[in-house]
Each structure stands twice: as C-alpha cells, then as structure tokens.
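Why do we bother with a discrete structure alphabet at all? Because it lets us treat a fold like text: something you can write down, compare, and reason about line by line. To make this less abstract, here is a complete entry for LacI family transcriptional regulator. Read it the way you would read a sentence in a foreign language you are learning: slowly, and without expecting to understand everything at once.
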Amino acid sequence: MGSTSPDDADRAPTIYDVARRAGVAPSTVSRAFARPGRVSTATAQKIRAVAEEIGYRANPIARALSTHRSGMIALVVPDITNPVNFPVIRGAETTAAEAGYTLVLADSRESGERERAALDRVAGSVEGVLLTSSRMSDAAVRTLTKRGPVVVLNRAITGIPSVVTDNPRGVRRAMEHLGSLGHHTITYLAGPEASWVDGMRWRAVREASLELLLTAHRIGPLVPTVAGGARAVQRWLERPTSAVLAYNDQMAIGFMQGLRERGIVVPDQVSVVGFDNILAADWVTPTLTTVASPLRAMGATAAQHLIAMIGGAKPHAQAPVVLPVRLTVRGSTGPRARS
C-alpha cells in the first residue's frame, strides 16, 4: 500500500493518494466520484474503500471547475409546505441520488418572480433544472432552456420535456362518481390564477358536465391551501350546490372544515371531492374522496428524463409524459339529499 511520510500525515489526502493506493490512474478516481457509471463496479468499490481508509473526500467545487460538472440538479416547487410536493421531492431526490446527483431544492412561494430569482442564484451551479407547477410564463421557461436541460412537471409547454398526470381522466372519474350519486349541479373550487393544472381541470369539468348532462359552477381563483378552502365556503353559500370538486385536497379539507363550523354535514348535505390523495386525505373526518395522482412517480420520471438529457440523450419534447390517475372513494361523498 506504500508508506506515509511525516509530511503526508500533516496534509489532507488527495486524489493522487487514492490513485496510488488503489493502483489506478487519477482520472479513474475522478470518474469514480463524478460519474460512477463510467467505472466498473469493482473498481469503484475499491476506490471508495481506499478513500474511506485514508480519509479522502471529493471537493465538489474543484470537481465542478475542472470537469464543468457539479453533480447537482435543481428542483423548484411553488410551495414547499404543500403536502402534494413531498412525494414529488422524494421521487426526484431518490432517483437523483441513485444516479450520483445531489438535489438542490428551491421554493418559489407561488411567485414567478421568486422562481426566476431562485433560478438565477443556482445558474452555473447545477447541471439541469426540474420545474414543478412553474408560475413563470412559457416564454420565460423557454429562455431558461438556453442555459441547460430543463424538465417541467405538472405543466405542458410545447417543445419542452414535460411530465403530467392525466387531469382530464381524473376529473371525468370524479364527475361520473358525483353524477352516479344523483348530484346534478357541482361547484368547482379553482386553484391559483397562474396554474396550468387549474386551467386543465376546469376545462375538463366543463367538458364532463356537457357530456354527462350536469351543471358546473366555478369559484375562484383561490389560494390552494386549507385556509383558502375554508374561505370559499362563504362564496359557496351564495349559490350552494349538493357537490363540490376542489382543485386540490388541501382546499377540499379546508372547505369541509368551513362547512362543519356552519353546521353543514358532509356527505349528508354536501359531497366533497379533492385532488392528489395527500396523506391527510385518509386522516380527516370524514375521510376524503379524491383523485389519486402518482406524485412520487412524477418526481422520479422527471428526474430520470433530466439526468438522461444531461448525459446527452435527445429530449422527448413532442408530447408530455402522461401518468395515470385513479379515483379513491372514501367517506366525503354520498347520495344527494332529497329536498
């Protein structure tokens, strides 16, 4: 393994120390840390064992300067406190880690301006960007692609790789379910004004209403939170309906809380359906009927596409990747009450 001089003991181990002890070239050590997939498993394991033995740690800044590769990708979410983003983050982070990347997380707080500022701060430090429910304009997102690979989640932009859930099918299943229970008029609690997903869901509500001979009203735009859903009750009371479909589960849960405070019983008097199937949907009383979206798979799929693009793969930008959804029926929906 070679001897260690007194001078060696006083300095931090280098890539050359690892290479000498492992019996490989310094460039092989560099690849083992920067791009594990380009080194055989046995060699990579040997290099990492030697590095651990002598206390060597790769310097990501130095590696980025020499290779122009930082080993980091960015994920921007519109609201880090929104439970719908938790599985998306986990799916993206797990996939990134398995490929040797570190995920950098940024929160735009539902602001396109903050989103752009966050991206400016990480520009040059990350190799690619994942945009979740971006609040920026299509033009701004296209400009971003000139800096490097970009994949958009929960939104479709022509010419840019995108991963979305099947919003039209999810809305259709929810409307069919409510119609089968005898509900003829349904209120849609809309999400943020700048949300592409909200536009898709409201369009699907209108189309399903026409096809199923139902009537739909819209309240919004609203803040997509529990508080936003609770505040919507007052506006709903101006034109009450026997069923409500909310933009997301948080709004649905808040709406049910607001109804409860006014003595209105769910589902005996009003049926409520949410969207996304967050963990809390199964904890509230009554449990929430919701359209379940494969959120973790969305994060993982987007990260896989981004990492492939970073590696030189041609982006699949002709049409978005559409992930399936399903209706999960629980206790918040029931037959329409007889007048």
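What the structure line is telling us, in plain words: The two ends are 87 Å apart (CA to CA). Residues 182 and 336 are 5 Å apart (CA to CA).
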